[in-house]
């Protein structure tokens, strides 16, 4: 009898241990199920994020396609515009060349060449060494040899020319010295005396080839204090006669 009771007690112990072990396993399974559920939720969330990211990528891709199309269209328009501009430039250059050729022919066949120009305003400050005087008020300019923006005369035809330069001072100790230059070489000089309206001419006859340059400039630094403008300081040149047998 005691043996049977001992056996039953032992069976109960084993049964209880098995139940406890089963309960532990159930808890583990429950924890695993909960963890799996969380993982599934995370996977679901990631899938949703991936879905929307994919949608955003598709939208961005579509935008890029549209932008590429617009860029290609703009590029084609730019190429077309560039071609038109290049064609227009070629036409304008050709027209300019034709004008230059006509002007060169007109100038080369000219028999009358001359200009007279004067200073509009009085020079009231020292000129730099060899600074060109720009006689900006042009009275006459036959054959357009004189450039009122640079103060330089370029001979349109070859021949003998007369040069007439007159300068005038403003007042005491306010004169100046000017020289006429032909292709960098002095031709004549004029010095306005340091008296009221003291003046001096500079006259010469020179031979010029086509394109030769003649200008009036300050002689040396600080010798040009004040030069009276208006009709008192003038620069003129004229063709005396053209070279025989050609003009170039």
TrEMBL record:
Highest taxon in the source lineage: Eukaryota
Bias kind Basic and acidic residues: ranges: 7-30
Location of region: Disordered: 1-30
Cell compartment(s), UniProt: Secreted
Main localization of the protein described in the UniProt heading: secreted
Pfam families given in the database record: C1q
The protein's name in its UniProt record: C1q domain-containing protein
Taxonomic source organism: Sinanodonta woodiana (Chinese pond mussel)
């Amino acid at each position: 009898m005691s043996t049977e009771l001992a056996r039953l007690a032992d069976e109960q112990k084993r049964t209880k241990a098995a139940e406890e072990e089963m309960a532990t396993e159930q808890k583990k399974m429950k924890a695993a199920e909960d963890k799996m559920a969380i993982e599934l939720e995370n996977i679901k969330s990631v899938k949703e994020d991936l879905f929307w990211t994919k949608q955003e990528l598709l939208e961005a891709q579509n935008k890029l396609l549209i932008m590429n199309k617009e860029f290609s269209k703009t590029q084609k328009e730019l190429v077309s515009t560039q071609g038109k501009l290049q064609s227009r430039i070629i036409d304008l250059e050709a027209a300019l060349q034709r004008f230059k050729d006509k002007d060169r022919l007109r100038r080369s066949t000219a028999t009358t060449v001359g200009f007279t120009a004067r200073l509009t305003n009085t020079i009231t400050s020292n000129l730099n060494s060899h600074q060109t005087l720009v006689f900006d008020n042009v009275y006459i300019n036959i054959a357009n040899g004189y450039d009122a923006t640079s103060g330089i005369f370029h001979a349109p035809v070859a021949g003998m020319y007369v040069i007439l330069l007159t300068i005038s001072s403003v007042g005491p100790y306010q004169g100046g010295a000017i020289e006429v230059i032909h292709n960098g070489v002095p031709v004549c000089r004029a010095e306005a005396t340091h008296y009221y309206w003291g003046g001096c001419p500079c006259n010469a006859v020179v031979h010029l080839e086509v394109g030769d340059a003649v200008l009036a400039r300050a002689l040396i630094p600080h010798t040009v204090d004040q030069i009276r403008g208006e009709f008192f300081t003038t620069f003129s040149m004229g063709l005396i006669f053209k070279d025989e047998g050609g003009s170039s």
